[in-house]
Each structure stands twice: as structure tokens, then as C-alpha cells.
Design a protein that fits this description.
Helix 3 packs antiparallel against helix 4, helix 4 (117-136) packs parallel to helix 6 and helix 9 (295-313) packs parallel to helix 10. A ten-stranded mixed sheet has the order 1-16-17-18-15-14-10-11-12-13, with helices on both faces. Strands 4, 5, 6, 7 and 8 form a five-stranded parallel sheet that branches. A three-stranded antiparallel sheet has the order 3-2-9, with helices on one face. It has twelve helices and 18 strands. The chain is α/β, with parallel strands linked by helices. It has helices spanning 22-29, 50-62, 105-112, 117-136, 150-156, 173-181, 193-196, 213-227, 295-313, 330-342, 415-425, 441-453, and strands spanning 4-6, 12-14, 17-19, 40-48, 91-94, 100-102, 143-147, 188-190, 234-235, 244-253, 260-268, 273-284, 291-292, 319-324, 347-355, 372-375, 380-383, 404-410.
Length: 470
């Protein structure tokens, strides 16, 4: 049973071609939807101080030309080819002074004068929202870049607080700003000054690790393309395989940490698009501290997910895959299976996925290969979604990777095929240009969304698309 297998790296589908590497596929073939979104023009709005707006504008102009890579391994760290110099990228960024709005400096300074972290975060996020609203009253844009100053970061950082009373530290500025911006129905991007200002570095003793400029350019391009309704790449699918809806379920605390709710994210295999919903509050088992849904809430959650899928695709999927961050209990299984029976869905797989403390070792210097798969027994598997990659001839990470522990509950497909799907889903994060993520996008998405929607009161507006939350 304990036989080690290395799963072949899944291909991604770009414009009329396939490849395993994101940057290579985009630069050589172009985004998947290039054939029906030629010459994509993105109107970018910028909100910040006069200084940060000026620097952001200069950096956006710089993206038109090639940005060389300063790394030795050019396969792993290729240059950014430039939006104008490489037409395969299919993108032009429209910059105009009428798309820019400066934060009121008096109100900003007033917000920063507080000595309470949470008040600073709330007041600064509120000022950004007010300024965005003022900008949108006069013009329309496809994306809004929020550019807080270095001073804002120093007041909000908690790694080495100075003259700052840290009473609660309940508020995360990034997540709160995202939550406040959802009502505009326009994607946002938060960017700190050192991301686009060559002369700046992250503050000392900060937890931020700044990537190379070419990598930052790649990350920005991919995220911007997706946020403005583009499809950079998609999973490769065999037409003979049943259409599948992937659903990720995880849980989050409210701000006061008095309640736990469920958040849900779906990844549709046709587009890699995430559809977001919020579940009901759940109870924590006093004995084992596990968080589980009641049968009623499990039914409601998946029922909403599948009706949303039908609204998007005009039919129900033939197969449903549930990824959960904790173990399934009997009530959840009953509720989920009732939904599947309701819609005559015969094919399904229910898996619990979490990080594992189990480690595999490989001869020599390198960490285990990505795709290393070990089946422990009929119900438990170990899978490395991060690891050494043959294409690069190295491990593209800073720390020794931890594998995933995959527990099978109700499954119909083989453990190997389910692990291969998780490898595919670990390549579907449009928020950066990494070769892969540790978690499949189903669970990564639901966790990220939970961090944001905890700031939205029940009944508040939640855009359905993940592009507004990333």
C-alpha cells in the first residue's frame, strides 16, 4: 500500500496551446481567451497620495517595455516581456489623469494621528472608500489600484510597534478595504510603495519579502487580466470526462471571535472562475473542537452552490467534488448527498485536505519532487503540491515544503486521479505567477474570502465573483 508515485505535472491550456509553466505559456501563446478578447484595453483608476499616484503611474508605463530578470535561472525567473513589446499578452493599460483621485491629506493625517491600530485601519479604509466613490462619480474604470503611503504601513504594522497601543489588533487593513470596496462592483488592488517604487524597500524587521521587479510585473499583469474578466489559462479537460463542479468549504470567525461561519468557493473547470457565497453560523463541538455543519446547513450550502452553477452554465454538473478544511461528519454527508439526489447527480467525491506533519526525504540536496504521492491506506494520502520541479532543475521556494494530508470520505474516483486533480487546482491561482500553490484554489479561495466577508454584516452585498475578493 505504501508505494510512492510521482504524478506527472498537469498541463495548462493557453491560447491554442498547452504548457506546464504559466509564464512560458502566456509569453509564447497568450492568454486562453485571446481569440475572443483581442487587444484588451484596461482603464486603471489610481487612488492614493499625490506622491504614490505619481510613482504608480510611472511604473504602469514601465510595464509597456521588457523588464529584465536579475536571477540566474531564466527558466524559473524569466523577464517580463512588456505589454507593448509582446502582443501575445493581449493587454494595454489605459492611464489618464481623470482616472486618478488624491486622498484628502487633512483627513489622512487625522486618521494616522490615532494611537490605536484598529482605529487607524478603519479610518484609513473609510477614507479610501470615500475617495473611490468620488472618483467613480465622475468616470468609469475597470480596476482601481489603492496606493497607501509608506507612513500608512508604518502605522499599521504590528511586527515592531512604536508609540502604538495594540489593544485588540482585530482589524486587517487589506481585508477591511476589500470589504468596503465590494459595493462598487469594481475589482481593487492594494499596492504598497515598494512594490512599484525602485528606490524603496520594505521597512526593516518587516515580514515582507520583496520579489524581483520582473516577478512583480508578472504578478500584476496576471491578476489584472483576471480581475478585468479575462481568462489567463484554464485546466485541461478530457471531453469524455464528466463536467465537474469543484467546491471548497472552510470556516472563519467573526471580528469578535464569538461565532464561526462557513464560507464557500467554487471553481468551474470551464473557466477557473470562483463563485462566492457565505454560509450560516456553525457550532464547535465541545469535545473535539471540530467545526461542522448541521445536516440542514450542509444541504442549504451545497444547494445554493449548485443552483448558482446552473445559473452560470445553464445546466447542473455531472460530478461534484467537495474539498473541506476539516473532517466530514455524518450530518454533513447526509445533507450533501440529499442535494446530489435532488438534482440527480450520480458522481461525487468528498475529501478533507489539510497540511501534514509527515515528511518524505529524497537522496541528495533537493526536497521531494512536486507531485510525490504516497497512499497510506484506503482513506489517507500524502501529496506534495510544492517541491522540486524538473523543468527548473531546482526547488522554487524558500522553505522546506509541507505536503498535504488528504482524507477520503465518500469517493468514487481512484486516489491517484483525485490527487492529480488537486495538483491541477494548485495551479489555478490567478493572484500571482508562481508555478503552483500549496493548497488547491478551492480551499485557498474560501479561506481568503472568509477573511474579507467577516467585515460584511449579514444581508450585506456580496459580489458572486472571486475576482472582487483577490
Amino acid at each position: 500500500m505504501n508505494k510512492l508515485t510521482v504524478i506527472r505535472e498537469p498541463l495548462l491550456e493557453f491560447h491554442e496551446n498547452k504548457h506546464v509553466d504559466i509564464k512560458f505559456g502566456l509569453s509564447k501563446f497568450g492568454p486562453f481567451d485571446k481569440s475572443y478578447s483581442q487587444n484588451k484595453i484596461i482603464k486603471v483608476g489610481i487612488v492614493g497620495t499625490s506622491h504614490t499616484i505619481d510613482n504608480m503611474r510611472k511604473w504602469l508605463e514601465k510595464l509597456n517595455s521588457k523588464i529584465p530578470s536579475k536571477k540566474d535561472n531564466k527558466i524559473l525567473h524569466p523577464p517580463f516581456p512588456g505589454l507593448e513589446t509582446n502582443p501575445e499578452l493581449n493587454t494595454k493599460i489605459s492611464i489618464n489623469s481623470k482616472y486618478e483621485k488624491v486622498l484628502n491629506p487633512v483627513e489622512l493625517q487625522k486618521a494616522l494621528n490615532h494611537n490605536n491600530h484598529d482605529i487607524v485601519a478603519k479610518d484609513t479604509a473609510t477614507l479610501f472608500k470615500k475617495t473611490i466613490e468620488s472618483l467613480l462619480a465622475k468616470t468609469s474604470v475597470d480596476l482601481i489600484i489603492c496606493c497607501p503611503s509608506e507612513e500608512v504601513y508604518k502605522k499599521l504594522r504590528i511586527e515592531n510597534p512604536k508609540n502604538l497601543k495594540q489593544e485588540t489588533l482585530a482589524v486587517d487593513f487589506h481585508d477591511l478595504l476589500k470589504a468596503k470596496s465590494l459595493e462598487f462592483n469594481i475589482p481593487t488592488q492594494l499596492m504598497w510603495p515598494w512594490t512599484y517604487t525602485e528606490s524603496l524597500s520594505p521597512p526593516s524587521k518587516s515580514s515582507i519579502s520583496l520579489q524581483s521587479e520582473s516577478t512583480r510585473a508578472w504578478n500584476f499583469y496576471i491578476a489584472t487580466y483576471y480581475k478585468t474578466s479575462g481568462i489567463p489559462w484554464r485546466m485541461t479537460r478530457d471531453p469524455e470526462v464528466p463536467t465537474t463542479c469543484y467546491v471548497g468549504i472552510s470556516f472563519f470567525h467573526n471580528i469578535k471571535k464569538t461565532k464561526v461561519s462557513s464560507s464557500i468557493a467554487q471553481v468551474f473547470n470551464e473557466k477557473g472562475e470562483g463563485i462566492i457565497m457565505r454560509g450560516e453560523p456553525v457550532k464547535i463541538n465541545k469535545n473535539d473542537k471540530q467545526v461542522n455543519l448541521s445536516e440542514k446547513d450542509a444541504f442549504k450550502l451545497l444547494d445554493n452552490a449548485l443552483t448558482t452553477y446552473k445559473d452560470e452554465h445553464f445546466n447542473f454538473p455531472a460530478r461534484v467534488v467537495l474539498h473541506k478544511s476539516s473532517a466530514f461528519n455524518e450530518n454533513e454527508l447526509k445533507g450533501f448527498k440529499r442535494v446530489l439526489k435532488k438534482y440527480y447527480i450520480e458522481f461525487y467525491d468528498f475529501l478533507s485536505i489539510r497540511r501534514s506533519s509527515t515528511k518524505l526525504f529524497r537522496e541528495g540536496y533537493y526536497v521531494p519532487l512536486r507531485g510525490s504521492f504516497l497512499q497510506l491506506d484506503n482513506k489517507n494520502m500524502i501529496l506534495y503540491t510544492r517541491g522540486s520541479i524538473n523543468l527548473y532543475q531546482e526547488y522554487p521556494g524558500m522553505y522546506i515544503p509541507k505536503p498535504l494530508h488528504i482524507q477520503l470520505f465518500e469517493t468514487q474516483n481512484s486516489p491517484l486521479s483525485l490527487a492529480t486533480e488537486i495538483l491541477e487546482l494548485s495551479k489555478m491561482n490567478y493572484n500571482n505567477s508562481q508555478f503552483s500553490e500549496s493548497m488547491p484554489i478551492t480551499l485557498r479561495t474560501s479561506r481568503n474570502v472568509g477573511a474579507i466577508i467577516k467585515y460584511i454584516t449579514k444581508g450585506g452585498y456580496l459580489p458572486p465573483s472571486y475576482r472582487f475578493y483577490m
